[in-house]
Amino acid sequence: MTYDTTSGPSGLRRASLVVHGGRAHGQPGDPVVAPITQSVNHVQEVGTTDGLLYTRYANTPNAALLQTRLALLDGAESSLVLASGMGATACTMRALLAPGDQLVTSAWIYGGTRKLFDSELPDSGVSVVSVDPLDVHAWRAAITAHTRVVFLETPVNPTTRVIDIRPICDLAHASGAVVVVDATFASPINFRPLEQGADLVIHSATKYLNGHHDVLAGVVNGSAALVERVRQKMMIWGQVPDPLALWLLERGLKTLDVRVQRSNASALRLAEWASAHPKIARVHYPGLPSHPDHALARRVLDGFGGMLALELADGGDSSSRFLRRLRLITHATSLGGVDSLACEPRYTSHAHMTSETRAAIGIPDGFVRFSIGVEDADDLIADVAHALS
Ligand SMILES: *Cc1c(COP(=O)(O)O)cnc(C)c1O
Question: Does ligand 1 have an atom closer than 6 angstroms to the CB of 362?
Fold first, then answer.
């Protein structure tokens, strides 16, 4: 069996690419499922450094197949799979930033990314400036000739705000900076930042791409030149997934389109239902006309996503009781898998803030975040209804 890792089946839509992208049509006797290649090293031609395959170089068959498929999904020239979403972000920053350089970042980013930016990067001589991502003037003021990277995350956790990346990309490119977008919450089914002007897109593949709560991995997609720079850092820092993780990730990826379509539809139904419920003070979901970024979301997203948040009318006192009464939806962190999950950002991503600071950025006590999986929407609504009763 040979894998076409240079040109996937062209002209296929994403629902087909997630299953077939990067793999040649099988011949009689071939396995339907791409086999796992557990071998770390591979037989090499004598007298050349070419064609050296090694698991830590992320160029073995399982990695190559996935990377071709992931590049096609994001409309990227090149793709790299790493050991985790954090590994992807850390190696990308290592590749793009040197002492004396400046990173300008959205203030609304994943907690692990914030720690990387707040402590690790300053320790290595990089200055970091955070801005309110919805304020274009703030981006304009922050981006200078020293800015090498502009980083942002959209849709935003846990408020589901959607950021218009086009004007920010224009500002960054005018200063010669590279724009990196963490699009984990949307997946390439709902949003492709490279189409909107970004240079690199990062996914925590742990979330929607794998989708089954059982693999840790990360992805960086973009131009071949930039992705190669990240790959060099990945090899040195050893941020590489093992073959089983790659194989499982490919299996999970095959259902990405059907999973995300289901989550989009069910999250919208739950959001609409919750909007009319007297015990819900506010629903955060970009698919609702009441969401502040609804018009933008309609323009830049192909689907509104499976992430939503409900603010319980009784505030923080009622949320523990609510979470304990859920029977179908699981109280757990993380997101993007087949099981629907709920958690309170005040005890997870935003635990480092005071109640007042959280409320000021739109996350009051009683704010519950949901990651909607693939269960029946009526069952999910019944579960929330029961927990509220
Ligand atoms: C989970 C997550 C990460 C980190 O990914 P890991 O795979 O856990 O390392 C980064 N960004 C976002 C938006 C995430 O949700």
Answer: no
